[in-house]
């Protein structure tokens, strides 16, 4: 029973709780629906308000854009109106200009017609004048023209010769003064003594008894020495001396050193001779290198290839007309550098080219070709600059000088060679040069006699006065100078003197 009661009470509680919960849920739902309606109404009002605001803003923006567009349209219209007015003004100006041009064309046309008429009248007058001149002179027109042109040519020729003569005299006077100053300064700065060198060397002996020891048994010693050195030993009646003869100065120097050491040592036999010759060759090679280095150091020429240094040293034992080539090269470098400094040319290029200008002579007896061509090949092989090669290769006139430094090296070479006592010339070459000089002068028309005087440094030319006038003598001197420069090689300069003489003789009785 008790349990049943509990069950009924429980069931009743559940039923009452159910109905209570349902009643409470319906109340909450109603409240929520009312709240939702309120929120919806507020959102609808807010949306309407926002829509009205957006519409107002859109209307304001549209109005502003419309105003801007209208303003731009007005400005564009005003600009177009200004352009139209300018175009109209230009059209009016062009029309006025066109009218002026038309008027000018009409004026020009009238003037052209008037000029044509005047030209026709002038031609008629000229033709009549020419006919009258022909009638008066009695000469045809072509003949008269040729005679006038001939006279004009002669007058112009004489005037040209006179102008050339005066200009040459003035330029020569100024150039000579300037050149003499430059050359004298250059020579003073590098003045050096000249000693002619020979193709023989002399070895002093302590006694004539030493000659027999040099010859050796059946001449074996002298044959060994001559074979090893390539130099001829001349043992003659000269007391206490042996002469070494040979055209290779390096070999001659080797033989001299070897023989002097053999004489000092006293032991002279083939084995000892071979030993001394070998030692002398090494010493000469070292001397060659030292000479080349000293030459470059003396001039301040840096960066030379070691092989060029050796070739410079070999020039110490090379002579040209009795002049030592290394000393000559050093002097040419100094002269060229001094003159370059005086006139503002490149001193470094002039000095370097002057030192290397005869480098080909170090091997010209071993290689085919002129010493200039050999030198150019050597300088290119050892990477010398183009400016130095260009200045060096023109010093004998084989190519045209292309730079100021080339002219300076050529002039310095001539100065060094032309110094009194610097070089010796064989009688045969001297006579040939004089004959060639006279032949060049005699090859010109109107020359009567030509005489080379002052050891070939001047040539005096007697001309026929009936063929060569005074101005013609000026032109003749210039032509002879050009031909001498082209065909003849000579040291220094040659003076050309043209003499024209006329004599009037009368006898009083």
From TrEMBL:
Q: Return the SUPFAM superfamilies for the record.
A: Eukaryotic type KH-domain (KH-domain type I), HD-domain/PDEase-like
User: Tell me, what is one Gene Ontology molecular-function annotation carried by this entry?
Assistant: RNA endonuclease activity
Q: Which Gene3D superfamilies match?
A: Hypothetical protein af1432, K Homology domain, type 1
What CDD domains would the database entry show? HDc (cd00077), KH-I_RNaseY (cd22431)
Organism superkingdom: Bacteria
E.C. code: 3.1.-.-
Residue ranges annotated for the HD domain, each copy included? 325-418
Q: Which residues form a coiled coil?
A: 33-135
A Gene Ontology term for the protein's cellular component? plasma membrane
Protein's GO biological process: mRNA catabolic process
The reply on keyword Mitochondrion is no
Keywords for this entry?
Coiled coil, Endonuclease, Hydrolase, Nuclease, RNA-binding
Q: Where is the signal peptide?
A: none
Say yes or no: keyword Nuclease present.
yes
Cross-referenced InterPro entries: HD/PDEase_dom, HD_domain, HDIG_dom, KH_dom, KH_dom_type_1, KH_dom_type_1_sf, Ribonuclease_Y, RNase_Y_N
Which family is this sequence assigned to? Belongs to the RNase Y family.
What's this protein's function? Endoribonuclease that initiates mRNA decay.
| Record PANTHER family | RIBONUCLEASE Y
Q: What is this protein called?
A: Ribonuclease Y
């Amino acid at each position: 029973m008790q349990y049943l009661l509990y069950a009924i009470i429980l069931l009743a509680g559940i039923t009452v709780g159910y109905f209570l919960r349902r009643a409470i849920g319906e109340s909450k739902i109603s409240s929520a629906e009312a709240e939702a309606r309120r929120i919806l109404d507020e959102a609808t009002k807010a949306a309407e308000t926002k829509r009205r605001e957006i519409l107002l803003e859109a209307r304001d923006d549209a109005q502003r854009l419309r105003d801007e567009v209208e303003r731009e349209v007005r400005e564009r219209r005003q600009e177009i109106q200004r352009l139209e007015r300018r175009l109209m003004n230009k059209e009016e100006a062009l029309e006025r200009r066109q009218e002026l041009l038309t008027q000018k064309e009409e004026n020009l046309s009238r003037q052209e017609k008037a000029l044509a008429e005047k030209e026709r009248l002038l031609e008629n007058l000229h033709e009549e004048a020419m006919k009258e001149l022909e009638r008066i002179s009695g000469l045809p027109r072509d003949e008269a023209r040729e005679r006038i042109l001939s006279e004009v040519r002669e007058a112009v020729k004489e005037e040209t010769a006179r102008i050339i003569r005066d200009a040459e005299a003035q330029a020569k006077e100024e150039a000579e003064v300037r050149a003499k100053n430059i050359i004298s300064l250059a020579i003073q700065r590098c003045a050096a003594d000249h000693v002619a060198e020979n193709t023989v060397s002399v070895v002093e002996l302590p006694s004539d008894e030493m000659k027999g020891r040099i010859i050796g048994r059946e001449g074996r010693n002298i044959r060994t020495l001559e074979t090893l050195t390539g130099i001829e030993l001349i043992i003659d009646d000269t007391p206490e001396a042996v002469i070494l003869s040979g055209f290779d100065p390096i070999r001659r120097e080797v033989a001299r050193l070897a023989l002097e050491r053999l004489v000092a040592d006293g032991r002279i036999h083939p084995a000892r001779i071979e030993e001394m010759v070998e030692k002398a060759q090494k010493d000469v090679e070292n001397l060659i290198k030292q000479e080349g280095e000293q030459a470059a150091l003396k001039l301040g020429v840096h960066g030379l290839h070691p092989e060029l240094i050796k070739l410079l040293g070999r020039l110490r034992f090379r002579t040209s007309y009795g002049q030592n080539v290394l000393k000559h090269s050093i002097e040419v470098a100094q002269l060229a550098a001094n003159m370059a400094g005086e006139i503002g040319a490149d001193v470094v290029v002039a000095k370097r080219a002057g030192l290397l200008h005869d480098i080909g002579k170090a091997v010209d007896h071993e290689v085919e070709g002129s010493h200039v061509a050999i030198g150019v090949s050597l300088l290119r092989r050892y990477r010398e600059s183009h400016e130095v090669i260009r200045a060096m290769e023109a010093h004998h006139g084989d190519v045209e000088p292309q730079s100021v430094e080339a002219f300076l090296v050529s002039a310095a070479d001539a100065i060094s060679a032309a110094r009194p006592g610097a070089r010796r010339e064989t009688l045969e070459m001297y006579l040939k040069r004089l004959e060639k000089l006279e032949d060049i002068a005699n090859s010109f028309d109107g020359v009567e006699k030509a005489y080379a005087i002052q050891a070939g440094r001047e040539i005096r030319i007697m001309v026929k006065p009936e063929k060569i006038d005074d101005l013609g003598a000026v032109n003749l001197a210039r032509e002879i100078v050009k031909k001498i420069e082209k065909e003849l090689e000579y040291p220094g300069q040659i003076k050309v003197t043209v003499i024209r003489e006329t004599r009037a003789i009368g006898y009083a009785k």
